[in-house]
Amino acid sequence: MSSSMRRVIFLVDMNAFFISCEMANKPELKGQPAAVAGNPKNRSGIILAANYDARAFGVKTTMLIHEALKLCPGLILVPPTHNLYARKSREVMEILSRYTPVLQQNSIDEAWLDLTGCDLLFGEPLAIAGRIMDDIRNELDLWCSIGISDNKFLAKMASERKKPLGITELWKKDIKRILWPLNVREMYGVGKQTEKRLNEIGIMTIGDLACCDANILTNAFGKYGNELKKLANGIDTSPVTANPKGESKSIGRSTTLSKDIVDIELARSVLLRLAEEVGEEARRSDFKGKTVSIVIRYSDFRTITRQKSIPLSFLTRDIYRTGCELLDENWDSNKPVRLLGIGIANIDEDMPDQLSIFDVNEDLDDEIKREEKLERAMDQIRSRFGSDMLKRAKLVDGQKEE
Ligand SMILES: [Mg+2]
Fold first, then answer.
1. Is the pTM above the cut of 0.90?
2. Where are the alpha helices (DSSP H) in 250-332?
């Protein structure tokens, strides 16, 4: 394989994944408008995933159930069954791994594949994509969209172009025409917060970002600014990193706060919520860590991580307590914080890749965060109905549709 060989990267993204899993299991839902919804018994619950029949009525993810029913009175509501989605996700990944071992799962319903050189085995990229789509359809009764390019970013952007059942190529020569006119919010890697900051410095489209002076971006976003500019120019050299098989080496959660904070009490409560999630996942996967790390990203995007060893544990209490110690040692009430994270790992060396346990590229992991937000919204709905219901729905409002 010559080093000058063009890379071939796919992003395979499942269409309306949760509800499609339900439909594969319950054929009676097919052809009917249906949606997975948090607590469907309560009319103020939230839509987590709508099928395409429901979308035709205007039903969307994060919509309140009673709003959805107003648009589509015949809407069938199904409670979420996360075990089913996890199992289907594994089955999808199993199919994908037949085509290449270089597969990186990006969220429960999508993965990058590096198929460089595979045309010798399987044919041209378009033909391979067609086969993958057929396999997933025939074996699992699920639909996907596939983006094809020579890097991860463009493959992801391509996969968004046509849903459902779309296969889209997007190459560097096309970006001026196809990507640059799009609003920056459409760009993978740009979330609501980043969009706002970009708009503040006059950047509205991906083309504006691509052509913006690098210094201006560095001033506004630090290193991240340069990354954004490169991506807008279709440049992404990051490799498809095969997910480690077997035992995971770390579990982390981070969250971008809805407002920058300086109050350490508030920070502790955020950390507690995240530590609960980390502990829950650690116990579920029977994984004990011996290092607790926190990540703090300041409003100027400067990011620090700090860590501390602990006796092997998967208890929320230990994770949270150690996280608070680290927070106390590193808190500076003069510096507003926009993102907090906490995690555990079973390595205690310098952890050069410690950042990777958090999605510190925050907006780069929009998909994952969208899922987290939905999950969180579900938890909140479960535990607290009533007056702040609408406010909470607003928290998840404005997310891009699947
Ligand atoms: Mg996806």
1. no
2. 264-284, 316-330
DSSP readout, 162-192?
STTT-EEE--GGGHHHHTTTSBGGGSTT--H
pLDDT at position 368 is 45
Set 110, 160, 227, 402: catalytic member? 110
Q: Does the annotation mark 200 as catalytic?
A: no
The residues whose Cβ lies within 5 A of ligand 1, an ion, are 13, 109-110, 367
Q: Which of residues 73 and 80 earns the better pLDDT score?
A: 73
Mean pLDDT of the region 112-138: 90
- In angstroms, what is the span from residue 144 Cα to ligand 1's centroid? 9
**Cα 138 to ligand 1 centroid, rounded to whole Å:** 20
Distance from Cα 362 to the centre of ligand 1, integer Å = 16
Domains of the chain: 9-16+83-173 (3.30.70.270), 17-81 (3.40.1170.60), 175-232 (1.10.150.20), 250-379 (3.30.1490.100)
Cα of 281 from ligand 1 centre, angstroms: 21
Going by C-alpha positions, the residue among 363, 337, 338 that lies closest to residue 191 is 363
- Rounded to whole angstroms, the Cα distance separating 368 from 231 reads 19
Tokens found for residue 392: 């909470």
Read off the pLDDT of residues 350-372 as tens digits, 9 standing for 90 and up: 333 333 344 444 443 444 455 55
Q: Is 80 exposed, middle or buried (0-12, 13-18, 19+ CB in 10 A)?
A: buried
Tell me the one-letter amino acid at 6. R
Q: What average pLDDT score do residues 267-275 get?
A: 92
